[in-house]
Write a structure and sequence with these properties.
- By secondary structure, the chain is of the alpha/beta class.
- It has three domains: 8-92 and 261-289, Rossmann fold (3-Layer(aba) Sandwich); 102-252, Rossmann fold (3-Layer(aba) Sandwich); 291-371, 2-Layer Sandwich (Ribosomal Protein S8, Chain: A, domain 1), CATH 3.30.1370.
- The chain has helices at 18-22, 38-41, 57-60, 80-85, 98-116, 132-143, 153-159, 167-170, 196-199, 219-223, 243-248, 261-278, 306-317, 320-328, 334-339, 358-366; strands at residues 8-12, 27-31, 46-49, 67-70, 89-92, 124-128, 147-151, 175-178, 207-210, 229-232, 251-252, 298-300, 351-354, 370-372.
- The strands form three sheets. The chain has a six-stranded parallel sheet. A five-stranded parallel sheet has the order 2-1-3-4-5.
- Helix 5 (98-116) crosses helix 6 (132-143), helix 5 (98-116) crosses helix 13 (306-317) and helix 13 (306-317) crosses helix 16 (358-366).
- It starts with 7 loop residues before the first strand and ends with a strand.
- The relative contact order is 0.12.
- The structure holds nicotinamide-adenine-dinucleotide and 4-phospho-D-erythronate.
- Nicotinamide-adenine-dinucleotide is lined by residues 73-74, 95, 97-98, 101, 128-134, 151-155, 179-182, 188, 190, 193, 211-213, 233-234, 255, 257-258.
Amino acid sequence: MTQIVQRKLLIDDAVPYAQTIFGHLGKVMTLPGREINAEAVKDIDALIVRSRTQVNAELLADSKVSYVGSTVVGLDHIDQDYLANTQRHFYSAQGCNANSVAEFVIHALILLAEQENFDISTKSLGIIGVGHVGKLLHAKAQALGVTCLLNDPPRAKQEGNQGFVDLEHALQADIISVHTPLTFSGADKTYHLINSEKLALLNPQQILVNAARGGIIDEQALLQTHLKAKITDCWENEPNINPELIEQSFLVSPHIAGHSFEAKLAGSTMVYHDLCSFWNEPQKNDWQQKLPKIPKAITVQNAENWQKGLFYVLQKTHLIQNDDQAIRHNPSNFEGYRRNYPTHHEWHKQQVKVTKNQKLNCILQKLNFQLIG
Ligand SMILES: NC(=O)c1ccc[n+]([C@@H]2O[C@H](COP(=O)([O-])OP(=O)(O)OC[C@H]3O[C@@H](n4cnc5c(N)ncnc54)[C@H](O)[C@@H]3O)[C@@H](O)[C@H]2O)c1
Ligand SMILES: O=C(O)[C@H](O)[C@H](O)COP(=O)(O)O
């Protein structure tokens, strides 16, 4: 009689619904991403990580892992050459959290606009890196009437310069938001892309957002740069973040821009589908019926203007100030807060009932809210 050997999966315990989604494929074990080590993966067939596990020879050399899935987008923690050279299958959920990040950036900017009393539609936005996140941010910013300057040399080389500007030009925008990967080599490497020389081009009226990766902006140089506002979701040396940058930032958060419920679930689902096909197993999607219901509708009444109405709606979907407060006075809470991050939903899941303000209706529609009655 042939004995069926059950496959073993080790999954970062921050992957939502790990057991529910992957359970039928084998024995599921979970560990915090930072605790996944060579000993833990020795006997594992499929390793599924987020961003906190360094996946390289040191981790995998003594293991039988043949499949590595990443339910996030950044690749700076994965030695892809090693995986390819050792014939290990690798898949990452590219694009899974792009909408979450784009929504986070727009929300942060509307919060700033309301607190500083300016009209966002009068501002220009320089988007550095126009991939999954950058494209969605561009579309949402355009919906608000914001003029965008797009910088993406790798795309410009492939597609032609039309529609793109160089970095120095993009850095002239009122607001600059960085959305490149963190890379350390090649013609377009991004490590300290925004260095002291580039920061010296900025003036005290500009706003700089980093929801991409710590290290793309030179943090030491940033600390010497006076700006209207710094919005910091990604940091050098996470989770040991720089208290001075906290103090200097208008809004801080513990690397959660991509942490909407839908984004996390999309990451898990994309890896699950890939693993099913790698193991030639049929997909089971019945777990989707167990997901939480859509949040209740938001009603906007008598908004003074479209920006105030939009701000009201955004705050009902997600109080991003809570993310700030969670670490501002207690930076050691960085990792704990993001690991137990409160659920919030993306705008396309949210019903909104608006009265009278046609412009607000139109903008909410362009931002993919569900307008009712
Ligand atoms: N804060 C978060 O929670 C969060 C969530 C998702 C992604 N991220 C980070 O954001 C990055 C972007 O995500 P994405 O899904 O848009 O990735 P993507 O690969 O779809 O897009 C990245 C874009 O950056 C461009 N690029 C590369 N080098 C560049 C350079 N030197 N200058 C300008 N552009 C350059 C690429 O050509 C590409 O178009 C990820 O690599 C990840 O590190 C952070
Ligand atoms: O790279 C990404 O996709 C994002 O930065 C993502 O939010 C990181 O996820 P983490 O494992 O750190 O929660």
